[in-house]
C-alpha cells in the first residue's frame, strides 16, 4: 500500500514533469540521458528506424508477459533489429517471389 506521503511526492513530481513544458518548451531534459516531449513530430523522429535515440528501461513496461519481451519492449537495438527483420515478410506489402 502506498503511504499518503509517497503519494504526495509522486503527485508533486508529476506536477513538475507536467509543468516542464511551460518552463522549457515542448521538450525538456529531465535527466542527463532522458527527455520528455509533447511534440508528436519529435516522438516520430525518436522512434524512427535508425534513430540516434535509444530505448530506455521504460519500454520494459510494454511487456505483455512479465518475463518475456515482445517487439515493443525490447531495449537491445541489435536484438530488436533482428526480430524486426524476421517480421518484415509478414507485414510487407510486397509479395514474396514465387
Outline the structure in words:
This protein is mainly α and 98 residues long. It has two domains: 39 residues, no CATH class; 37 residues, no CATH class. 45% of the residues lie in helices and 9% in strands. It has a two-stranded antiparallel ribbon. A hairpin with a 2-residue loop joins β1 and β2. The longest helix is centred in the N-terminal third of the chain and has 21 residues. The radius of gyration is 18 Å and the shape is elongated.
SSE topology:
Blueprint: H1 4-24, E1 27-31, E2 34-37, H2 40-47, H3 77-91
Radius of gyration computed on alpha carbons: 18 Å
- How much helical structure, as a percent, in the residues? 40-55%
The structure class reads: mainly alpha
Spatial strand order of the main sheet:
1-2
Number of helices: 3
Q: What would the principal axes of the Cα set say about the shape? A: elongated
Instruction: Identify the quaternary structure here.
Output: single chain
Q: Are there runs of 5+ residues with pLDDT below 50, and where?
A: 5-10
Report the β-strand fraction as a percent range: 5-15%
Mean pLDDT: 74
Number of strands: 2
**Roughly how many Å apart are the termini?**
59 Å
The SSE string, one letter per element, is HEEHH
What's the domain count?
2
Q: Describe the main β-sheet briefly.
A: 2 strands, antiparallel
Amino acid at each position: 500500500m502506498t503511504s499518503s506521503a509517497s503519494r504526495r511526492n509522486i503527485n508533486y513530481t508529476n506536477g513538475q514533469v507536467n509543468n516542464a513544458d511551460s518552463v522549457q518548451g515542448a521538450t525538456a531534459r529531465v535527466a542527463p540521458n532522458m527527455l520528455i516531449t509533447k511534440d508528436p513530430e519529435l516522438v516520430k523522429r525518436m522512434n524512427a528506424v535508425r534513430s540516434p535515440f535509444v530505448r530506455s528501461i521504460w519500454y520494459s513496461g510494454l511487456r505483455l508477459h512479465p518475463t518475456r519481451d515482445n517487439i515493443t519492449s525490447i531495449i537491445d537495438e541489435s536484438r530488436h533489429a533482428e526480430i524486426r527483420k524476421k517480421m518484415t515478410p509478414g507485414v510487407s506489402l510486397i509479395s514474396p517471389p514465387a
